[in-house]
Amino acid sequence: MLQGMMMDRPLSVPSIIDYASELYPEVELVSVTVEGGLHRSGYGAARKRIARLAHALKALGVKPGDRVATLAWNGYRHFELYYATAGLGAVCHTLNPRLSEAHLEYIVNHAEDRLFCFDMTFLPIVQKMQSRWPDGMAYLAMTDAAHMPEEEGSPDLLCYESLLEGQPEDFRWLDVDERAASGLCYTSGTTGEPKGVLYSHRSTVLHALCCIATGIESYKAGRMILPVVPLFHVNAWGLPFSAPLAGSGLIFPGPKLDGASLFSLMEAEEVHSAWGVPTVWLGLLQEIEKQGRLPNGLELVLIGGSAAPRSMIETFERNYGIQVVHGWGMTEMSPVGSTTMLSPQMNGEGQDRRIGFKTSQGRRVFNVDMKIVDEEGQALPHDGKASGELYVRGPFIASGYYGNEAASRGCVDPDGWFSTGDVAKISPDGLLWLVDRTKDLIKSGGEWISSIDIENIAIAHPAVANCAVIAVPHPKWDERPLLCVVKAIDGEASKEELLVFIAERVAKWQVPDDVVFLESLPLTATGKISKRTLRQQLADYRLPGQEE
Ligand code: AMP
Predict the structure, then answer these.
(1) pLDDT tens profile 104-137
(2) How many Å lie between the centroid of ligand 1 and the Cα of residue 305?
(3) Contacts of 421 (CB under 8 A, 6+ apart)
(4) What is the DSSP string of 28-52?
(5) Which of 193, 263, 260 is nearest to 226 (CA)?
(6) What is the side-by-side strand order in the sheet with 323-329?
(7) SS3 call for 14
(8) Of 48, 291, 302, 334, which shows the fewest CB atoms inside 10 Å?
């Protein structure tokens, strides 16, 4: 093969902030702070603080390959940590504060984090968990000296702003192999412990470029994007990388994510687009309805992480003239896999048809190949009729899980395709339609609940002979868990008793909303509980408070 004669320069995460600080030094990065008030800077000033932070982290002994944990809201210090760690060849490991204590314990120990950076909101979690996390891990409070805690019982804390003081405003980023790790995010497993997805410099840069290539109108120099989706949800869908690369500004909302707070922030900062899960937009729509108007400047809403309901797309597009982009993806895909950026021909159709297209999961992003297969693994046609498990392939899709051989073995087929656990149809014009899920998980407000974890707890109750947890639709949270129980012959327990039993063992928001008692559970031919049949049997069931 005749080789091309182009330079083999590595793709690197810090090159993004170098580029943004040079071309868009004044484009703003605005944060609602945990301490109160706003922090404003441009990409130029942000790069200087990132350099100072990199010097400080290096002085603390952070080395290439080290994992640096963050437990933080969307804010400028969190953004700075992404780039400073990458500039040192280290790995930014974002943690989801909504996880159970057991999962937080597992993840930090499994990742062997070396430094733990957190917003003051999460000090109680740190105090509670510290004795269960690695000895010798350093703790960095993401605040200034005036807001450091004085109480007894606080761990030995380093202060973020004090560390930055006096540090030089430039830093020569470490030359890293583009395949070196730069980010780590754990995702829920169907069973057992969460699994770590380890992003590289190369995958991160390619993902950012391919997101921009979709043509989503958020990406234009000077336009302001509000990531409501947290940085701990797959790096806010890649926005800390794609936005600066495109020259778009970022408005980080901090801890306040209710409709009224988002509305006033959008209005004050003339936000052009906002990105988040459907649950968040319900809150915003209520506020828009209350005020009888839109926040000034808002033109686009990106809805992802769960299926965008048709009624929501209609309300935004028809009632308010806001463009909706619906996106699908996974933590393992960096995460964006498809968006409803339509073809010119689709856009030329009437509004009804266009809204219909947007209820699909959209069309694939460049560099994301898709196939659907039947139960024997045979590829099915993209004819809009055949449905099968969706497999994906591409340079920003996980090839395995960090430090987890068992999970890595099962996730990719012999031809190198990643199995998504989603069941889909693909139409000839490339629209992806999700129709089901093979993974036994429930997505509530953008967060996962493992059915099997809850079942394992419930079955341990003496009154439970057999049980299954299924997802039922919910207008606010998209899905909520329902516990279906077959009672033991001599067992007796009320709904309330069973729910208390579970509540003692999982995070509060993971407790099922209701319990139904059944004579038996439907089984498949191989004797497993058929959740599909169970869902069909309970199709008319409504959660308490949701009855018509
Ligand atoms: P996560 O890794 O937590 O981002 O979850 C990824 C999973 O969320 C996907 O495999 C889907 O099951 C679900 N998901 C994400 N986006 C959508 C969407 N737009 N519509 C339906 N399901 C979605």
Answers:
(1) 999 999 999 999 999 999 999 999 999 999 999 9
(2) 5
(3) 190, 389, 437, 438, 439, 441
(4) EEEEE-SSSSEEEEEHHHHHHHHHH
(5) 263
(6) 38-42, 28-32, 249-252, 224-227, 273-276, 300-304, 323-329, 336-339, 363-364
(7) helix
(8) 291
At a CB cut-off of 8 Å and minimum separation 6, what does 429 contact?
343, 346, 363
> What is the amino acid identity at position 145?
A
Question: Which atom of ligand 1 is least distant from the CA of 439?
Answer: 12
Q: Whose C-alpha lies nearest to ligand 1, atom 8? A: 305
DSSP readout, 501-531? HHHTTS-GGGS-SEEEE-S---B-TTSSB-H
Q: How long a stretch of residues is the chain?
A: 548
* Whole-number Å distance between alpha carbons of 368 and 391: 10
Q: Residue 160 has which token pair?
A: 């973020």
pTM of the model: 0.93
Q: Kindly report, residue by residue over 36-67, the tens digit of the pLDDT.
A: 999 999 999 999 999 999 999 999 999 999 99
CB atoms within 10 A of CB 296: 11
- Contact in structure between 34 and 75 (CB atoms under 8 Å): yes
Q: Tell me the backbone φ, ψ of residue 370, rounded to 5 degrees.
A: -130, 140
495 is catalytic: no
Three-state DSSP at 58 gives helix
CA separation, residue 187 to residues 95, 220, 402, 441, 540 (Å): 10, 31, 11, 12, 31
Distances (CA, A) of 144 to 51, 84, 405: 18, 18, 41
Question: In angstroms, rounded to a whole number, what is the distance separating the alpha carbons of residues 239 and 226?
Answer: 9
Concerning whether 443 is annotated as a catalytic residue, the answer is yes
CB 381 within 8 A of CB 372: no
Residue 209 token pair: 């470029």
